Amino acid sequence: MRFDEAYSGNVFIKSHPSYEESKAVIYGMPMDWTVSFRPGSRFGPARIREVSLGLEEYSPYLDKHLEEVKYFDAGDIPLPFGNPQRSLDLIEEYVGQLLDAGKFPVGLGGEHLCTWPVFKAIHKKYPDFAVIHIDAHADLREEYEGEPLSHSTPIRKVCGLIGPENVYSFGIRSGMREEFQYAKESGMYMAKFDVAAPLKEVLPKLAGRNVYVTIDIDVLDPAHAPGTGTAEAGGISSKELLEAITMIANSDINVVGADIVEVAPAYDPSEQTQIAASKFLREILLGWVK
């Protein structure tokens, strides 16, 4: 797949015209083939780009400007509609090529199953990596109604890949009893309900490590982000998630990639969900791309 050609659609604000000169690459994973409630997250990546035109290029949180980091928006991966396994294979191949080229991958979803092939690609490059998972849902099921390829399974899958002791989940407030039991008994870290306070305690323990960060937009309360497929009441605010992103930026961990998933624009005519995701992406680019 080609990375060095300019994307013909809307790009994220201040996207650099050169792939070769860019440190980070934004790519979309427009897939919602396995969702269990409301589809539509395949339209998230495009809309996050479009609303970024309303963003300020300066971040008062990090005192940085988007001109200070070079990133290339490669557009969306062309995924075969309705074919989960082939889609996952293409994502893994795509991200693997980015990593081989020394790029920092920034994915836009799409359903959360999209992160599973990214985990596999990261593991090949950084076999010692850890995961920071920010989400409303545990995503620790082994299958959903008999289907192992489900948006409710990626964190259980990565526990099997790198060991549950290397997985840190925050903001969790939904899941089966068995998922919470697994988290408790397996040795993984799970902070229920909150993000910023427990993250502050965990980050020193991850100092010096390679870490991949995956953010499901439904960690936010539906009042802040109604545009998602499986909204869960009782979530955090946009302010708290921005605080968490800033804490990660100011920590001693080595972030090796990130994604924002599950933005479904059709359910938020106010556009506050996609606008929030766009702002989070700005902070990720400014704070995590070294």
Automatic annotation (TrEMBL):
SUPFAM superfamilies: Arginase/deacetylase
Domain of life: Bacteria
Keywords: Hydrolase, Metal-binding
Database matches in Pfam families: Arginase (PF00491)
Alphabetized InterPro entries for the sequence: Agmatinase-rel (IPR005925), Ureohydrolase (IPR006035), Ureohydrolase_dom_sf (IPR023696), Ureohydrolase_Mn_BS (IPR020855)
Family (UniProt): Belongs to the arginase family. Agmatinase subfamily.
Protein name: Agmatinase
Species this protein is from: Bacillus carboniphilus
Highest classification ranks of the organism: Bacteria, Bacillati, Bacillota, Bacilli, Bacillales
The encoding gene: speB
